[in-house]
Structure formats: C-alpha cells, structure tokens
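Structure in, sequence out. Go:
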C-alpha cells in the first residue's frame, strides 16, 4: 500500500533522463497525432517527482477515462461495502418491485425474489404489478449521447430499476430457403422480420430497434448454412422491462400471474408491506464489474447514486456536483473539467491529464480501486494489450475510446522497481490511423516508461 501522505508531495521539476524524454517525444511525433492534441503527464509515486508532461492542463475528451473519476468518487464517498437493495412489497392485491439504482440486477436475482414472494405466501397475483424506479430521475440518456447509438448495448437507457443491463438478446437463425429466418427474442419485443433465408453461407443481416419503440426490425439475408447472429438490443423504458421480467420470474416460481398482467409505474408507499429483498455485491466488487469491461450502465448508475445518496436527488447533474465537491476536498484541480455523464460516452465530457493524474495519485493507496482496473495482458479491456511484454501483468490502467478520442491512464512499475502513475489523452488525431494505432502509440509510451532508470 502506498503511503497516504505521498499524494500531498508537491510536484518537483522534470527529472526524467534526456534520452527517455527524447524517446517519449519521438513517439508523440507520430504522423497520425499531428492534426490532434495529446495531454500527458507522468509522475513517480515513490518520489513525487514530475517525470514528463505534454499539455497537462488542456481540456480533452476522456472517453471511458471518465470512469476513473466516477469509480474513485463512488468508492471514496459511498464506501467499498456499499450495496444496492431491490425490494418487493405488497399493497392490497398489487405487488410492487422497488429499484435502488442497482445496475447489476439480473433475471437470476429476480427469480430469487420471486421464490421469496412465493415463500411469503403469495401464490397468485390478483392485481397489478407495479414498479418503482423513483430513486433516479426520468432522464434515461446521458447529456450529448448520440441518437444513432441508442439501440446498441453500450448506450443502454438508465433507470432506477434495471434488469440484465437493460438489453435483450435477439437470436436470428437460418430458416428454409426462400423463407424468413427464425427469430428467438423476449416476448417483450415486437419483431418485424423482413429478412430472407438464402442458399449458402451469406450473412448480410441488419438487426435494429425502431427509435422510441420496443420494435425490432430485421432485414437483409441469411444463408441456410450460415451461423446464427446474436445481437443485444437496448430496451425503451427499462423499468417496465424489469417489471415484465419479474412477472416471468414469478410464473417460473409457481406464482399465478395473468398473461396480460397490468404493468404500471408507482411509488412504494409506507402502507405497502415488505415481502423480500435482494442485495447486490458490495461496491468493491461492483467496481471491478464496472471498470474491467468498461460498462457504461454501471457508470451512469454510480453517478446518479452519488447524487441520490450524497446529494439532493438521483440525477446526473447532482451526481456530478457531488463529484466536483469531492475533487475540491482532495485538492485536485478542477479547472477545465466538465462531467456530462458517468461513463465517458458523451463527447461533452472534458478532463485534463493533470486532473486524472491527481485522482490516480490520490487513490493509489485504495486497494479496491486498483483492483478494479484492467491488467495488461490479463483481463478487461487490456486483456489483449501488452501481451508478451514487460508490462504484462504489471500495468493497471483504464482505457477509453470514442471516434477521434483515445486514452489510457493508470499505474505501472518500471524495471528498476519504481512505481509510476501516468495519464495519456489523445484527441482529434488522424482518423485514417484509427483507434488501433492510437492504442499502439499509448502502449509504446508505457513500455518506454518501463525503461526509466532508478538513479537519475
């Protein structure tokens, strides 16, 4: 564990050897970076010395490096033992499922809740199935999110009551030649199948959701010898979808529920009687489920939870206000910082390399935060990076990718045993090179840092 006082050490003048600085500068001079801008900062965690920087105070799009901000604040303010509790209540003939903002609630846990309802003596639902998502506001999408991303899993709507990350799997398999392909999907969805099965291995299908509707349109062609195509489609009104899934869980548990049961939003009143609850994993574990795969829904729920628990309401804006106040309390400079969402999906987010590095230094002694980060060549979004290099199983860092924006920030230990913290933000680079080239340059920068000599 790093000494807590280390974060208070003032940054000292540049101490990296000229040869190392030259190598970093050479990598940053890559042609694809010339049209854009790079913000970068490297500091020794052992000495507090500033080793390298480039545009450290420039406001840049962080992409998923925004998750560093959200995760660190959530662990610091909510605590690693924080859990979400989803409850089921009865009110007359009605049942109410009340969400707490838990992004990890899934059908398996809904089935456990349903079994608890049955065990509590409820064998038939005679009234309505109500759902309470009031812990969060009604803004389902983040500020500045792209409208044409809405159907994709990484842009799932945010709700105080979620299930299966607010997506449903659509499976399309070949049918008879000349006939539509076969479709397996949740009955919550309406399927418009306009595709055709052809002879061969052709797979030219398009599976999309009509905007604002839970209607899935399938077009194109699928060969009768082709593999099935699986697509995760986001849900419109995810709280209602969660209630629908809970109705399915109740039936599975042996509770009689009408086929066309009424699903309505409501707020659990003091008059409603608690029946059963489901508690999530602690935040220390959820943090890894958030950071390693870079799960956007977790980021949005964590940020709104900060607003609900530590602020005045469960909104993105309130959560961002809580985060900003926390950053100030840790004396981390917020100049040039703007948080539009909790995940980094919005192109309106702005951070500086200075801010991210400040957070990483502050959280260096937080074992839960460090454990949540992807490990080079091992897991998460770094599983396929740094393999067969000295950074494998060494670098712990958060990745970030949007069109024209790529980032990598975290920790690495040099070959000489010095613990380093770094932040690399790349924006507006030549898109012909693409994100893969940007990532390769980041990897080259990190591998160069590993060569830093201990004595300087």
């Amino acid at each position: 564990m790093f000494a807590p006082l280390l974060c208070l050490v003032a940054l000292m003048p540049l101490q990296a050897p000229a040869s190392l600085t030259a190598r970093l500068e050479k990598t940053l001079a890559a042609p694809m970076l010339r049209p854009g801008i790079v913000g970068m900062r490297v500091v020794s965690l052992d000495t507090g010395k500033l080793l390298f920087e480039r545009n450290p105070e420039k406001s840049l799009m962080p992409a998923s490096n925004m998750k560093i901000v959200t995760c660190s604040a959530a662990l610091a303010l909510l605590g690693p033992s924080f859990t979400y509790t989803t409850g089921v209540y009865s009110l007359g003939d009605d049942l109410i499922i009340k969400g707490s903002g838990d992004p990890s609630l899934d059908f398996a846990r809904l089935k456990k809740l349903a079994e608890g309802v049955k065990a509590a003596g409820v064998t038939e639902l005679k009234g309505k199935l109500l759902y309470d998502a009031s812990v969060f506001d009604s803004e389902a999408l983040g500020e500045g999110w792209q409208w044409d991303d809405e159907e994709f899993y990484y842009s799932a709507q945010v709700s105080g009551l979620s299930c299966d990350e607010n997506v449903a799997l659509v499976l399309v398999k070949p049918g008879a030649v000349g006939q539509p392909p076969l479709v397996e999907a949740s009955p919550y969805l309406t399927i418009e199948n306009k595709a055709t099965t052809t002879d061969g291995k052709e797979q030219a299908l398009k599976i999309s959701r009509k905007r604002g509707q839970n209607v899935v349109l399938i077009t194109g062609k699928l060969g009768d010898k082709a593999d099935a195509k699986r697509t995760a489609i986001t849900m419109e009104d995810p709280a209602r979808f969660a209630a629908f899934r809970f109705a399915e869980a109740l039936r599975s548990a042996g509770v009689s529920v009408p086929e066309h049961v009424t699903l309505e939003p409501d707020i659990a009143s003091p008059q409603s009687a608690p029946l059963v609850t489901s508690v999530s994993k602690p935040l220390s574990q959820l943090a890894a489920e958030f950071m390693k795969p870079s799960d956007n829904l977790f980021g949005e729920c964590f940020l709104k939870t900060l607003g609900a628990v530590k602020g005045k309401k469960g909104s993105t804006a309130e959560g961002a206000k809580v985060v900003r106040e926390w950053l100030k309390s840790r004396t981390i400079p917020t100049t040039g910082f703007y948080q539009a969402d909790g995940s980094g999906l919005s192109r309106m987010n702005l951070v500086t390399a200075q801010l991210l590095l400040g957070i990483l230094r502050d959280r260096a002694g937080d074992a839960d935060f460090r454990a949540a980060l992807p490990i080079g060549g091992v897991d998460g979004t770094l599983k396929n990076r740094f393999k067969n290099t000295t950074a494998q199983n060494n670098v712990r860092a958060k990745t970030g990718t949007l069109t024209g924006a790529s980032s990598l920030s975290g920790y690495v230990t040099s070959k000489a045993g010095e613990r380093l913290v770094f932040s690399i933000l790349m924006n507006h680079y030549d898109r012909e090179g693409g994100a893969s080239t940007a990532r390769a340059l980041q990897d080259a920068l990190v591998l160069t840092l590993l060569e830093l000599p201990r004595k300087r």
